[in-house]
Specification:
The chain is of the alpha+beta class. The protein folds into two domains: 2-143, no CATH class; 147-260, Glutaredoxin, CATH 3.40.30. It is 44% helix and 10% strand. The protein contains eleven helices and four strands. The protein has helices spanning 2-16, 19-30, 40-48, 62-70, 82-98, 127-138, 140-143, 158-167, 182-190, 195-204, 251-260; strands spanning 171-177, 205-211, 231-235, 241-246. The protein has a four-stranded mixed sheet with strand order 2-1-3-4. A hairpin with a 5-residue loop joins strand 3 (231-235) and strand 4. Helix 10 (195-204) packs parallel to helix 11. The radius of gyration is 23 Å and the shape is elongated. The protein starts with a helix and ends with a helix.
């Protein structure tokens, strides 16, 4: 009988749990210490090359925590039993947040020395919030897929890029963006993540993504740049400018742009 009651309680909690609700819990209760996302490449550089002086992190980021919980050598629960795993993750979060202990941490032991001692969060989260937080970490990877599945060339050796474009019969697409550009982030999330867009780009273009706040546009494109991000410049395999597209585009319109330049 107790098992039946427990199962019903679990199902009810699980049905009302969601990634978005867990994200709100993280933002409201955890983000004062934990940043939301930093690229793994930059995190590795920070800890293993810069002795944490690049980012000065005092706590792991959300993506670091999600990796530690779901995929690291110290991962929690059985990946083949999602229901029981959710319970185990929830219980771990409760035990650790109520009584933080570095010896009970699942984070990389080599970087624990950089983190501050975490204060107890006893009484700050409800049972529902723990459930939602567990779901947030479990589904984090699915909801934060990066457009990096698109092949991006960031080394602007112009002669080498032209040679590669000619050898592979590809066009060159220069994407002018910036970290502060809202519409760039919107396109990254809604357009570049699409499999059809990725397939068209990888098959027909060499994509050069340029943060114009930190790097000059290649191929003398500066004279055509109207200081609007995002902007897209399509060049042929000889690096001659064919067309310029200024502004943000929907998935359908951007696919049409890619297609209209392919012979």
């Amino acid at each position: 009988m107790r098992k039946v009651v427990f199962f019903i309680l679990f199902v009810n909690l699980f049905l009302f749990a969601s990634y978005e609700e867990g994200k709100k819990v993280f933002e409201n209760k955890c983000s004062s210490c934990h940043q939301q996302f930093i690229e793994i490449k930059k995190i590795k550089e920070n800890f293993f090359e810069k002795d944490n002086k690049l980012l000065n992190l005092k706590a792991p980021t959300a993506n670091m925590l999600a990796y530690a919980i779901m995929d690291s050598p110290k991962k929690i629960g059985d990946p083949n039993d999602s229901e029981m795993r959710e319970i185990e993750i929830e219980e771990y979060l409760k035990s650790y947040l109520i009584k933080p202990d570095k010896f009970n941490s699942i984070c990389d032991e080599h970087i624990l020395k950089y983190y501050d001692v975490k204060p107890s969060m006893k009484g700050e989260l409800s049972d529902d919030e723990y459930v939602n937080l567990a779901i947030f970490f479990m589904q984090y990877s699915k909801h934060n897929k990066s457009k990096k599945t698109i092949k991006v060339n960031s080394n602007f050796d112009e002669d080498e890029i032209v040679l590669k474009a000619q050898q592979n019969n590809k066009l060159i697409l220069v994407y002018a963006t910036s970290k502060s550009c809202y519409y760039c982030k919107k396109m990254d999330r809604e357009v570049f993540s699409d499999t059809k867009v990725q397939k068209s780009l990888n098959s027909n273009y060499i994509l050069l993504e340029v943060d114009v706040d930190n790097k000059a546009l290649p191929f003398n494109l500066r004279k055509y740049y109207k200081r609007v991000t995002p902007s897209f410049f399509v060049l042929n395999s000889n690096a001659n400018l064919l067309k310029t597209y200024v502004g943000s585009w929907s998935k359908k319109d951007f696919l049409d742009i890619l297609k209209e330049n392919i012979k």
